[in-house]
What does this fold into?
Amino acid sequence: MRTIATAVWDALRDFGAMTAIVLLCVGAAIVYGVCHDQITARICIEYFSVFHSTDVLPPGMDPNSPTQQGFFWGVFATWWMGLFIGVPLSIVARIGTAKPVSARDLVRPVAFLLVTMAVFAFVAGVIGYFLSPDGSATRHSFPAFASRIPPPHWRGFMADYFAHNASYLVGGAGGFVLLIHTAFVRWRKPKRR
It folds into this structure.
């Protein structure tokens, strides 16, 4: 009969495989974030230069460059989400007596989650854009920021706001579903010897 201590010891021996899962999730989150932010920075740069703090930007970074903003925020605002999902996923995938799931086994489910996030972000962005044809949703929802955003950009701001929130919401919920799915897959596989 295996004890919890034995399971933990086996997990520590399996640290490399667990680290690979965490790195997969962090890397996937960063790649998604950079791609997502390269697009949204071009829709409304003020989403980054006004709505986000420019105090965290590295010295010399142009707050009005969509490319620089997209790369910076794509990494800075997403790595932690990959870590937040990757650590518990590595535990669910590797600890215990069931046959372990490797990082390679998780590539397709993680890719599916990213595609799902992108679809929801796109739909939410379109909804945000058309929610307020005159931009009043930005003016009423974000009065402190609306005065610093040119009125022609208000609709783009709402599109970015909706797209970003959809990505985080679907990413978090999808990460939880991925945890459950991984546990179920392990439960169905034969036990390791």
